[in-house]
Amino acid sequence: MESGLSQAFQEELTCPICRSYLTDLVTISCGHSFCRACLHLSWEDSPAHCPMCREPSQQKDFKTSIVLKKLVSIVRQASLMKYLISEENKCVIHKETKGIFCMENSIYLCRLCSGSHEHRGHKHCPIEAAAEGQMERLLKQMESLWEKIQENEENLEAEIVMISLWETCLIEREEAIRAKYRASYPDLAVQEEEHIECLREEGNYYLEKLRKSKATIVETSKQLREMYQELMVMSQEPYVIVLQDFDDIFRRSESIQLSKPLAMIPELGGLAVRGLI
């Protein structure tokens, strides 16, 4: 009976999408709860339906179950405490349990080690508090990264539209120039071709820049998404791993967000041919 209750309890705290403990959980209008990141990715390329019951939902209709969030935190803290009291977590020098986290070196320390000359000037805090703090930093980083992903997608869409408009503009300008020559300068075939060539050179110059800009945005999108997936995996790890491995992934996430390729907007008026259009 107890085993069945425990299993049912675990199921309630598990995301139906990733099958890990709910992380930054959100509850949508139908009442089902998911990891925020899982729901973001699930709804990105499909209509906003509940992955469980398929009921339509609003993408911004996110609520948080305070009780469920607290229960998940308790379970994750319990898992951390189980590790902290294990033999594996005892200081090899002083044989004491390591219950202090050194923020400077991202390592666990026992009470005596934390007061040693090596760590005396470092910032310390109880491991349980450090775990919650690092998780909050991780979730904020994921939120920031997701905003960058959406912004980058908007830039990509704008660039695709601009390339299409530019190609159409080139065709229309060429047709307009030829029509002008036929109507007003039918004997200037050589000059007509020179003007067309000038148009194509200028147009293709900007078209190539647009395509390179698009390629840069696509590559940035790939890097942002890979980083988001990495953060997502990290958020599902036990607190023990989050505490010790977070600094490196945090620095890389910050670095990748500094790259902000913007959609290129060339001057369409630059394609006019002097004396004609």
From TrEMBL:
Gene3D superfamilies: Classic Zinc Finger, Zinc/RING finger domain, C3HC4 (zinc finger). Residues 15-54 form the RING-type domain. Keywords: Metal-binding, Zinc, Zinc-finger. Residues 86-127 form the B box-type domain. InterPro entries: TRIM/RBCC, Znf_B-box, Znf_RING, Znf_RING/FYVE/PHD, Znf_RING_CS. SMART domains: RING. The keyword Iron does not apply. SUPFAM superfamilies: B-box zinc-binding domain, RING/U-box. It holds the Pfam family zf-B_box. Transmembrane segments: none annotated. GO terms for molecular function: zinc ion binding. This is Uncharacterized protein. It comes from Myodes glareolus (Bank vole). The lineage of its organism: Eukaryota, Metazoa, Chordata, Craniata, Vertebrata.
